[in-house]
Amino acid sequence: MRHVSALFLASLAAIASASTTCSADSKCPESAPCCYSGVCGVGSSCLGSCDPLMSYSLDSCTPEAICKNQTYSFSNLDDSVAWDQYLGNASQYEWSWSGYPKVENSSLMLTMPNQTTGSLMTLNHYIWYGKVSAKIKSSRGGGVITGFILMSDVKDEIDFEFVGYNLSSVQTDFYFQGVENYTNEVNAAVSTGNTYDTWHTYTIDWSPERLEWLVDGTVMRTLTKNSTYNATSGIYMYPQTPSRLQMSLWPSGLSTESTGTIEWGGGLVNWTSADMEKYGYYYALFKDITVECYNPPEGTTIKGDVSYVYTSDTGLSDQILVSGNSTVLYNLEDTGLNMTAGKQETASSSSSGSSESSGSSTSTSFSAGTTTSGAASSSYSDRVMQGSVLAAVGAAFFFSLF
Ligand SMILES: *[C@@H]1O[C@H](CO)[C@@H](O)[C@H](O)[C@H]1NC(C)=O
Ligand SMILES: *[C@@H]1O[C@H](CO)[C@@H](O)[C@H](O)[C@H]1NC(C)=O
Ligand SMILES: *[C@@H]1O[C@H](CO)[C@@H](O)[C@H](O)[C@H]1NC(C)=O
Ligand SMILES: *[C@@H]1O[C@H](CO)[C@@H](O)[C@H](O)[C@H]1NC(C)=O
Ligand SMILES: *[C@@H]1O[C@H](CO)[C@@H](O)[C@H](O)[C@H]1NC(C)=O
Ligand SMILES: *[C@@H]1O[C@H](CO)[C@@H](O)[C@H](O)[C@H]1NC(C)=O
Ligand SMILES: *[C@@H]1O[C@H](CO)[C@@H](O)[C@H](O)[C@H]1NC(C)=O
Ligand SMILES: *[C@@H]1O[C@H](CO)[C@@H](O)[C@H](O)[C@H]1NC(C)=O
Ligand SMILES: *[C@@H]1O[C@H](CO)[C@@H](O)[C@H](O)[C@H]1NC(C)=O
Ligand SMILES: *[C@@H]1O[C@H](CO)[C@@H](O)[C@H](O)[C@H]1NC(C)=O
Ligand SMILES: *[C@@H]1O[C@H](CO)[C@@H](O)[C@H](O)[C@H]1NC(C)=O
Predict the structure, then answer these.
(1) How many angstroms is it from 272 CA to the middle of ligand 7?
(2) Given Cys at both, which of 65, 79, 121, 363 links 357, Cβ 3.0 to 4.6 Å?
């Protein structure tokens, strides 16, 4: 998949836990039961993006925080937490970040400093059908990708992706359980200005029967569930599982990427471009983010109002249960198998500098990645300093997996 989670998250996860890999055919061991971007682990690996179908068991990943109607504006990053510090309480922290986010002019600014893999901001609440909108100014330049997508833990995916070499349109795309099919990509042109200089509103309107991509309120593309029916498997290859909003800025144009990905993104990133020289980073801006939750599909088993849980390994919509079970781990060594096995940590605030996880191998070794242990407390410029040196390490780990 030409996608941030395939490169960026995997590079981080690969460092987090030794080298036990996972797939549908080779699930994780009980000792590190959570499959995160193809690697087994505990703690952070069991939270968002933990794939239940590749993990030790369906309940290895933590339950997924239920959808919340909300409008988000960014005057600071107090509602967000470094993703390797997050324990699963979406009421405490609405967002998890990695990389180099900051706030500018009341907008969320995702940046990609020199030689880094950029930034990712993920909503901790899942959306199981709903309408999600944001005003966005994309980044620009070949090999520089701005993303506004919904992604489920079994890799159903709904995308707006801005490829930085073409500012007159945005790409719309969808995936079912991560099955690659690039012919699903369709461009949607913006009617005024371009995607970089002009604010436009991008909306994903996702219901059980149909999916629409809108720009400035105009429907640019519609996908019906019916149209995705696969008569061979008897399955609708339609995005249908609880998904999180991910906003990202990442490089498709790295020499380590596949030729197809590099071409798709418009060539290699130019690290001495005008934007790099002027600001020291590429950036994209996001504001006025709204989430409107739709009701679960008819026939869904509802046993609470806290979380979504997978009850079978089909990974299909009719196997999702709405439960009352908690989404919160006691600490970063715990897993979905027993979320309260270890000592209870009190989550640190995103600015306090207390290090809830300083004994945790997960977050300690994680400091070699783009984000750092204690990154929650370090300044933007500290993170950039550390990241620019170390991002390459992450990439090297990732690519050694394949
Ligand atoms: C989650 O955080 C909120 C706000 O900080 C707190 O009131 C609540 O008790 C926490 N929930 C759990 C399950 O820890
Ligand atoms: C923030 O606002 C100032 C003043 O209007 C403007 O000069 C600057 O370019 C804005 N920053 C961004 C990233 O758009
Ligand atoms: C940008 O995308 C539009 C819409 O698909 C297309 O017509 C145009 O040729 C593209 N421009 C470039 C430079 O590829
Ligand atoms: C890709 O999706 C299209 C419909 O968008 C479908 O016609 C085609 O068969 C799919 N190809 C593969 C290889 O799955
Ligand atoms: C979609 O499927 C339903 C149920 O099979 C059917 O009633 C309906 O006519 C289909 N719609 C389209 C547009 O094919
Ligand atoms: C339909 O499902 C079959 C069996 O799972 C699979 O081999 C095939 O690639 C699917 N077709 C499409 C178009 O994805
Ligand atoms: C990178 O951008 C700079 C500034 O626009 C330009 O001079 C240089 O030729 C570009 N490099 C490449 C390889 O395109
Ligand atoms: C980015 O890093 C490369 C390699 O260290 C360097 O050649 C280039 O000048 C840097 N770009 C900027 C804008 O500092
Ligand atoms: C969200 O708001 C809609 C109406 O705008 C309402 O129908 C729905 O029940 C709400 N969902 C939640 C989870 O609050
Ligand atoms: C909820 O948690 C209880 C106690 O841990 C567990 O037995 C049960 O299977 C969980 N329910 C679901 C739907 O995961
Ligand atoms: C979880 O671990 C704690 C501490 O070892 C233990 O007391 C508790 O019974 C365990 N819970 C489950 C559901 O296994």
Answers:
(1) 6
(2) 363
Atom of ligand 4 nearest to the CA of 228: 4
Confidence of residue 371 (pLDDT cuts 50, 70, 90): very low
Ligand nearest to the CA of 328: 1
**What distance in angstroms lies between residue 159's CA and the mean position of ligand 6's atoms?**
21
Q: E-strand spans in 59-199?
A: 64-65, 70-72, 80-82, 95-98, 100-104, 107-113, 119-123, 130-137, 144-152, 157-163, 169-175, 186-189
Question: For residue 253, what are the CA distances in angstroms to 5, 171, 202?
Answer: 15, 17, 24
Say which residue the tokens 């209870």 belong to. Answer: 344
SS3 sequence of 192-204: CCCCCCCCEEEEE
Supply the pLDDT for residue 378: 57
Are residue 57 and residue 73 in the same domain, yes or no?
no
**Claim to verify: residue 60 and residue 70 sit in the same structural domain:** no
Decide which of 293, 317, 341 is a domain's last residue.
293
Domain identity same for 55 and 83: no
Taking CA atoms only, the protein residue closest to ligand 2 atom 8 is 105
Any ligand 4 atom below 6 A from CB of 233: no
Cα(212) to centroid of ligand 3, in Å?
Answer: 21
**Residues with Cβ within 8 Å of residue 251, at least 6 apart in sequence:** 112, 117, 118, 143, 144, 145, 257, 265, 269
| Cα 325 to chain centroid, rounded | 23
- Measure the CA–CA gap between 353 and 320, rounded to whole angstroms: 38
Residue 21 lies in a domain: yes
CA-CA distance, 281 to 118, in Å (whole number)? 9
Pairing label, strands 229-230, 235-236:
antiparallel
pTM assigned to the model:
0.89
Please tell me the predicted confidence (pLDDT) of residue 14. 47
Q: Does one domain contain both 81 and 56?
A: no
Domain limits at 384? 7-64+328-373+380-399
* Residue 358 forms part of a structural domain: yes
Same domain, 254 and 208: yes
pLDDT of residue 196: 98
285 in a structural domain: yes
87 and 214 together in one domain: yes
